[in-house]
Amino acid sequence: xxxxxxxxxxxxxxxxxxxxxxxxxxxxxxxxxxxxxxxxxxxxxxxxxxxxxxxxxxxxxxxxxxxxxxxxxxxxxxxxxxxxxxxxxxxxxxxxxxxxxxxxxxxxxxxxxxxxxxxxxxxxxxxxxxxxxxxxxxxxxxxxxxxxxxxxxxxxxxxxxxxxxxxxxxxxxxxxxxxxxxxxxxxxxxxxxxxxxxxxxxxxxxxxxxxxxxxxxxxxxxxxxxxxxxxxxxxxxxxxxxxxxxxxxxxxxxxxxxxxxxxxxxxxxxxxxxxxxxxxxxxxxxxxxxxxxxxxxxxxxxxxxxxxxxxxxxxxx
Length: 317
Ligand SMILES: [Zn+2]
Description:
Elements: E1 7-13, E2 17-24, E3 29-36, H1 42-61, E4 67-71, E5 74-75, E6 82-84, H2 96-103, E7 108-112, H3 113-124, E8 133-138, E9 142-148, E10 151-152, H4 184-187, H5 189-200, H6 207-215, H7 219-243, E11 247-251, H8 258-272, H9 274-277, E12 282-285, H10 291-301, E13 306-307, E14 315-316
Parallel strand pairs: 1-4, 4-7, 8-11, 10-13, 11-12
Antiparallel strand pairs: 1-2, 2-3, 5-6, 7-14, 8-9, 9-10
Helix pairs in contact: 3-10, 5-7, 6-7, 7-8
């Protein structure tokens, strides 16, 4: 086999798609493979597919510098066992790290996908040059992650922070977490669709369709986005007042609609957060198209970010 350039394998194991990519040390993507995740087949079938993709790549390219994996749930740092995976039914309790290590003889790092996205933006996107930032990912749910002075804040149980489960209305709709009126119930993609139903009475409309309608000047759709921006600002203003970080990055699929909600979001933040009004807080849209995948590569290619004391890092040799 001809020698190839040093590279890392990045894996984004999503609820619907498995993506495996090779990145060189300069973060250029050399190739990407995408496959539907067999959620119904359970963890073992999906991990088998993941291992096949990695083995096929290493057979052609030689051993990688390591394999970084963004996973949509919480992994126990010490055992590598899945703790919680809300979007991957049947995965809780699965021994992810030992299953992977038995098959793939490489340096493997596992990371929660929301945190991986933040790590991607921190090194290669909107956070480049910053020491501290928070990221909010608006998609099927609301993910969040926080990096403070180049260390990842995970709280004592490893799952923090959870901006999506901060209440913006104590009498609001019931949330799957047990709370009411959580930010996630309004500003996730399904939350925005529910706002639209309450506003316009339309039977079924997706966040993406609402974005198209708003960009075409549809008045009802613009009202929905204004309300979404107001609610997001209410949650984010609390975070900005509480944390006073220099940078907040908004990512995820819903952030594609940034042009339709940015100005209202800023007006509301100006109104609601005295810290934002000082003008030293940046709130920006994510820069990376696939922040989770870039973050998975960064787990291998960039200097590791330490955790705050508490839960251990999700690293195996
Ligand atoms: Zn909640």
